[in-house]
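Thread title: Can someone regenerate the structure for this chain?

I was given the following input by a collaborator and told the matching structure tokens would be attached. They weren't. Posting the sequence so someone can regenerate them.
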Amino acid sequence: MKRTLLVLGVLAPGLAFLPGCATNDHGAYMPVNTTVNNVENQAGFVLLDNALQNAVTCTGIQETRFPDGRLQVEANVRNRANRRLQVQLNCVFKDAQGFTVDETPFHNFFLDENATQGARFVSATDKAIRYTIRIREAR
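Best answer:
Regenerated them for you:
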């Protein structure tokens, strides 16, 4: 009994200095890795599927502004594979700050072996300044 009281008498003051559940870590947090996988905000043509990286490329993009202010974007999409591909393309039109103002639906696109084909997109509003053409495998 005396030994237990002696151990408690020695440990109790030491345990008082250990931190409990209280923490000074509270409030808002900053996001981490904000530039990782952020290609859609910088590039005009992006691939949404990893499998297309070696098969599809864009050989050129042409922008045209209509008299009413709408933006037309035409991209030359090239199939680098030795097989016919079925892909889907769409275009996200953005304002000067990068916010979406218009988006076209995904359209099926058939690319013959080693062929280049044009894809045309027109914004529905005159607010479009920037754009991102997105391509994915058809499912």
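The chain has one domain: 40-137.
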